[in-house]
Structure formats: C-alpha cells, structure tokens
Amino acid sequence: MQPRLAIVLKGYPRLSETFIAQEIRALELRGVKLCIFSLRHPYDPASHPIHAEIEAPVYYLPEYVHDDPLRVAAAALRLCLKAGFWRALARFSVDLWREPTRNRLRRFAQGLVLAREMPSSVEHYYAHFMHTPTSVCLYASIINGQSFSISAHAKDIWTISEQELRTKLSACDWVVTCTAANASYLMDLAAQPDKVTLLYHGLDFTRFDENTAAPSRRDGGSEVDPVHLVSVGRAVDKKGYEVLLAALAALPPTLNWRFSHIGGGELLDSLQAEARDLGLDKRIEWLGALPQTQVLAQYREADLFVLPSKISDDGDRDGLPNVLMEAQSQGLACLSTRISGIPELIIHGETGWLVEQRNSVELATALQELIVQPELRARLAQAGFERVRSEFSMQAGIDKLMKRLEPSFDGSHDNGPRKNGPHQNGESK
C-alpha cells in the first residue's frame, strides 16, 4: 500500500529526537502508511534501536539550494504551471519581506522540491516543529492543494513571531503540542482555539525494563563510593549546564560526588574548560552522545538525575524533556527547574525536586540536601516512577493523535503534476 501520510522533519534520524521516532513507529503499528521527508541528513554517529524498526521510506530534501540547484530548478519549472505555485509564491513573498534571510529562501526551495516529489498517494502532511518544517510544509501544501498539521514543541514556538504563529495556525488543519503552557499560548493566538490539542509524548514502557536494584545508600560521606549525579542533554544554552557547574563548585569540599554528562552540543568545549577553571574536572566525566542501552545503564547506576533547564535570552526553552520521564521510569530521583512543562511532570517534594531557573545558590542547596539524604531520594524516585508509569504512557498520546489524523484521510487530494514517488537523494528504507 502506498503512503497516505508524509511526515516532515528537521533531520532524521536524530538521537535527541527519539520521541519522534517512537511516535512514527507507533503510527506504523496502528496501520498508518507513511513516508518521511527530512530537511537535513543525519549527523549523529549512532542511532536508537527504534530507528531500525521503522519501515517507512526516508527521503532527503536539498539541505541548501547550492547542494542540488538542478533539482530545485526542475521542481520550479514543473510546478509553475499550477495555480498553487503562484499562491505559494505570494505567501513566500510576504514571508521574505518580513524575514529577508537566506533561510527563508531555503525553506521555499525545499517546499518546491517537497511539493514536486511528494508521492501522489499522500493525502496529508504532518510537520514536526512549528518553525522550518512547518514553513516547508505550508508552501508545499499551498502548491498541491493539500492539508497539513503540526506537532509543536518548545523552541519552535517561543522563538518565532506571534504573527508567523498566527499565519501557520490559520493555515493548518490542527496542532498538537506537548505541554499545557504551549497549548495555552497557541490557543490564545489561534482564531480557532479548538485546533490546538495538548498531547504528551509519553514513553513506550515496553521498551524499558524496570530497574529492580535496591535504592543506593550513598550519602556523600565516602570518598571511594561518592554519590553519582547524571544528566542527559545537549550542551546548549537552554540546558543551563553552566548554572549546574556553578552549583557544584559551591558544594562543601568534604561532600563526595561525581557527575556524568551524556550528550554532545556546541557548548561542550566551553563547559569542559569552565569545569577545569572551577577545579571540578576530576569529578566530572563527559561521555558524549551514547546509544539508548548505555544511557539506561547510566540511569540505573546513578543516584540523582539533574537537569538545570532555563529559558534562553532568545526565548528558546525545553518543553517537557523526555529524559526526565526516562530517568523516572528507571526509579531515579530527578532534580530540575520550574519552567515550561517540567512542573506538569514533577510535583515538587512529591515526585521530584524543583528549583528556580538560573539560580545556582538554590540549586546547590537542593543538590546538597538530596546528596546527603538517600531516604529522600528513594521516596521521590518511587513516587516519580509510579506517576510517570500511570500518567505519561505513550499509548494515550497516540490515541489522541489518531483521532486527529483520521479525518485528514478523506481522499480529497490533488493529483497534479507530481512524480510517482520521491526523488531518492539519500537513504531509503
């Protein structure tokens, strides 16, 4: 059977976006025939095991116009005979006037290629992230006269203008988003608030064995067996790791701890240099990006998960980080911040611990309290485990997504001058 749904992504596959892969595979298991269009080639050295399970063909659009100018030109020449092309060009002209950047030009070029190479069987486009992927989908949908929908997350909502958000909310069929704060904001902007649905990504707990080990009794008193702190997240500004380093440096020198960071990111070198300047480098290991099996092993060995997320100066922020749910699913106590959707998952003092963002003094106090009290960590870990398992299952979210998707498959799509299938530029499964 030919695909009916096209999923448009920033990049595929990505270790930092396994929640998207989880959703794709769940849709396949519900019988949805789909294909994947990626705006960028993968850059992670490894992939998650779930990526090997996904059956959908994967196709790559030209990342930049200069990567494949003939492909872009061929799409423009073929599509200019369609009325939708000129409507999309008008939309693009307005967008370019508001944002005169090369990125905007790239989005329109990718939209042209997407529109031309979309399989004729596809009835609906579904973009993950409200910025670039949605822009590409918007142009392609106007050209081909087809519907599209959006999955909105965090940065993609809070770093683009209200005007652009209103345009996309008006043009799409519906939007799902992963935090109540996001949903409230988008509903306020939407002319039709019922287009917006809160949908937690949740976890597929069938993929996670429970941690059956007894809670650790480490309390920071032993030099040979220090309390193990762990964090998983890219080294980018919104993760707030510089705040964590400052908090760690403020802990009493007699308190015994070690910290493991998992993830890559553009700020990794500067964070490592800062750790050396603070005299923390011998207590910290920078593990880089790891496959899921090794991440789970770190969760199960650790005593406390720490994620010092913050709102960046440009508005970028986390939504509801899956890593917090993953850590809780392994019976690991979590310490994080009161931003975005994190308080929707962690109830302070009951299922985890929360501090104010950017506050290294409060974070240091919380770290010390949780390091020296293994009983408190055990209580928070158990309560967090029970809540995440009962209220943040992936299946509930997929049920909601299917209810949104099913009306979009009505067979009323344009069979205009498109190829029978995508241009295979890159990997295909």
The first-level CATH class name of the largest domain: Alpha Beta
Query: What is the CATH homology-level superfamily of the largest domain?
Result: Glycogen Phosphorylase B
Number of domains: 2
Total number of β-strand segments? 13
End-to-end Cα distance: 15 Å
- The spatial strand order of the largest sheet comes to 3-2-1-4-5-6-7
Residues in helix, %: 40-55%
What series of H and E elements makes up the topology? EHEHEHHHEHEHHEHEEHEHEHEHEHEHHH
Beta fraction:
5-15%
Provide the CATH architecture of the largest domain.
3-Layer(aba) Sandwich
Q: Tell me the structural class.
A: alpha/beta
Q: Can you offer a commentary on this structure?
A:
This protein has 429 residues and is an alpha/beta fold. The chain folds into two domains: 5-202 and 393-408, Rossmann fold, CATH 3.40.50; 207-391, Rossmann fold (3-Layer(aba) Sandwich), CATH 3.40.50.2000. It contains 17 helices and 13 strands. A seven-stranded parallel sheet has the order 3-2-1-4-5-6-7, with helices on one face. A six-stranded parallel sheet has the order 10-9-8-11-12-13, with helices on both faces. Strand 1 (5-11), helix 1 and strand 2 (34-40) form a beta-alpha-beta unit. Helix 4 (83-98) packs antiparallel against helix 5, helix 4 (83-98) runs antiparallel to helix 6 and helix 5 crosses helix 6 (132-144). The radius of gyration is 23 Å and the shape is elongated. The two termini are 15 Å apart.
